[in-house]
Amino acid sequence: MSNVENVCPQVLRGVARELRRLAANPPSGIKLLLRDDDLTDVVALIDGPAETPYAGGVFRVRLVLGREFPTVPPRAYFLTRVFHPNVSSAGEVCVNTLKRDWRPELGLEHALLAVKCLLIAPNPDSALNADAAALLRDRYDDYFARAKLYTDIHARPDAASGLAHASATNEPSDAAPRAKRERRAQPPLAKDKRRILKRL
User: For 21-38, what is each residue's pLDDT tens digit?
Assistant: First the structure.
């Protein structure tokens, strides 16, 4: 449900300015998906950082701005399923930057970077997913393997981003259909991974 009518027009103008700036000059590994109809519901794609179990994945993240933004931080959610100590099964994110450490001047870029940093440095002490926190603390290799499995199943780049990449790199126009054919050749692996997840 849109929050636009509840947010001060002056704040909305500032949010619109920041969103335009972020879309034109995004932080590394973050792509904003702009919506003109609701500035209080911000969606971005975050690339999984290298040398983490999230590498190679693209994670859809949502920031919801309440009526008291920027005094109160935005609420962050992963729309892409992810195995992470600080992300609940419903996708809610727990990170100090968006809780007690929030300051109104930080802005949306800082909020998105905080979510990305969480993929690099999870914190088992403020866990929303107890299983992930326990594995991270006690059996890191198992944590890494399960988080990587979730990434492989749920966070693979979609055809639309493949198409955008193809046009950006001037690849032939059949690149997107070719990627689709290659994905079709892989379902047994995806099914095996889903079976493994059900057993976990």
Answer: 999 999 999 999 988 788
User: Which pair of tokens denotes residue 58?
Assistant: 């693209």
Contacts for 114-119: CB closer than 8 Å, 24+ residues apart? 114/76, 115/46, 115/61, 115/76, 116/27, 116/29, 116/30, 116/46, 116/49, 118/84, 118/86, 118/87, 118/93, 119/46, 119/48, 119/49, 119/52, 119/54, 119/59, 119/84
Q: Beta partners for 44?
A: 32, 61
- Name the band, by pLDDT with cuts 50, 70 and 90, for residue 164: very low
The question of whether 94 is a catalytic residue gets the answer yes
From 58, 94, 112, 115, active-site residue: 94
